[in-house]
Amino acid sequence: EPIQERFFRPHFLQAPGDLTVEEGKLCRMDCKASVSGLPTPDLSWQLNGKPIRPDSSHKMLVRENGVHSLIIEPVTSRDAGIYTCIASNRAGENTFSLELTVAAKEIQKAPVFIEKLQNTGVTEGFPVRLECRISGEPSPQIFWKKENESLTYNTDRVSMHQDNYGYICLLIQGATKEDAGWYTVSAKNEAGIVSCTARLDVYTQWQQPPQTTKPKKVRPSASRYAALCDQGLDIKAAFQPEANPVHLTMQPGLVESDDL
User: Fold this and answer.
1) Is the pTM here over 0.85, yes or no?
2) β-pairing, 192-203 with 120-123?
3) Phi, psi (5° rounding) for residue 3?
4) Are 127 and 171 spatial neighbours (Cβ–Cβ below 8 Å)?
5) What's the pLDDT tens digit per position in 54-84?
6) Where is the Ig-like domain (predicted)?
7) Cβ–Cβ under 8 Å, residues 18 and 102
8) Is 106 exposed, middle or buried (0-12, 13-18, 19+ CB in 10 A)?
9) Residue 187: Cβ within 10 Å count
10) What does the pLDDT look like over 99-158, one tens digit per residue?
């Protein structure tokens, strides 16, 4: 007497839930269907009720353990929607659905300096700040180096700071001669890396130079104001607010010392 073959409608042993994937990344949906007889079910996928056909960015795989996968790479905004997996055989069918949300791709911009480090001088024993401003998306990591030595942690005297507006600062309290040298700040994120270097000079307390100095040179200039500015002097700070520098009597010769 022939044995009658029994057929059973498939059901899912494993099914994924709703997914959120960033645009441009890989999305994988795994499921496993089981039947208590033959034939094994056929699986198909739909997006918003329309069949999904395999192509260069949509692949359907079946592993030996019975796990079926829909792989989408790269994900685009057109892939967002309701996905339905249908398992069917001659006894019937079963389905499950999930929603795929495609998040906007993260904006990436390599770091750039809005304001670079500047060469700086400070009198020994006084505080000094090495400052710059950097932009980048996502917010870059900041690294400081003195000469070839990395500055990896803050101390009571030397500390590194940054805020949410891109301002970066290395603060030195009570500068010493050993603090003088070349300082480099680097900014790095997923899009790139940028660096900037500047020199810090530390001077001893100023003293009156001895009388036996080198002969002074006269700097010719048609404009007294321009001559003062050329020497790095702040003309506005040098005179009282109510004074007018144009009418002041200048010394007969404008001099510049090689020792300055």
Assistant:
1) no
2) parallel
3) -85, 125
4) yes
5) 999 999 998 888 889 999 999 999 999 999 9
6) 10-101, 111-201
7) no
8) exposed
9) 25
10) 999 998 888 899 999 999 999 999 999 999 999 999 999 999 999 999 989 999 999 999
**CATH topology for 12-103?**
Immunoglobulin-like (2.60.40)
Neighbours of 96 (CB within 10 A): 17
Whose CA is closest to 170, among 213, 200, 138, 212? 200
Q: Are 157 and 128 in contact (CB under 8 A)?
A: no
**Would you say how long the chain is, in residues?**
260
CATH architecture for residues 109-203: Sandwich (2.60)
Of residues 242, 135, 136, 144, the one with CA closest to residue 198: 144
Q: Among 13, 36, 11, 29, which residue's Cα sits nearest to residue 94? A: 11
Tokens of 234: 């702040």
Q: What CA–CA distance (Å, rounded) separates 39 from 87?
A: 12
Q: What is the distance between the alpha carbons of residues 78 and 84, in angstroms, rounded to a whole number?
A: 16
The full set of domain ranges for the chain reads 12-103, 109-203
92-103 and 19-22 beta bridge pairing: parallel
Let me know: does 150 contact 170? Beta carbons within 8 Å. no
